[in-house]
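Hi everyone, sorry if this is the wrong subforum. Our group has a chain we'd like a structural model of before ordering constructs, and none of us has done structure prediction before. Sequence below.
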Amino acid sequence: MHLIKTGLAVLASLFLSGCSSGMKAGFMTLKDEVMPSRSDVRKTALQPDYRYLLVETDGQEALMVWIGNEPHRLGQASVWVSSDGVIIRLVNGKLVGVSEPRRHWQLISESIVTSPPPGSSITRLTQTSDAQPGYRMGVMRTVDQKVLPASEQAMAWVDHSLALRWQEEVDSNTGERTALYGLNSSNQITAGHRCMSAQWCLRWQTWPAKASDPLL
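Answer:
Right subforum, don't worry. Here is the predicted structure as tokens:
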């Protein structure tokens, strides 16, 4: 299984960087074996030797396959690849990078500005990100992070039987929600939602959905 995953990672890298038609064909053959098409996402039988992520963006769902971990400024990042050449990176379940053929975003730093004072659950963070197109480099944003009350816990896009608790991040200047994370009983993230811009948001969750399974 390790060799298959290594091969998938190498082929994915070659495919995205403009390889030969023969190599592209090899990647397409391999990915069809473990990555179902968008129309089959929730119904398909999954390969037991692989870990999957259900992702939704631009109103469409797709499954992504875990191909390994790599070092990141914010910690060890798990790397997930889709059949159409999209790569996302997660650190402790939080989205830190998205690479698509036409756009790219990455969180390059995050630091705590203010820890929760007594009687408060709000943590203030400073986040810095890069995005393309547009050469928007080093964009800084201050966000307030807090756990939502029980009355706001259920999110329609995640199975309610998972009984996740939800933590949100809100832009401290505009009040706009920028991220939302579903935590299991061990405070590990198993689902999330993040907006890189007002027009570009992404949702993800472990698949099949299991509250006990944290994201890598």
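For your construct planning: The longest helix spans residues 2-16. The CA atoms of residues 183 and 189 lie 4 Å apart.
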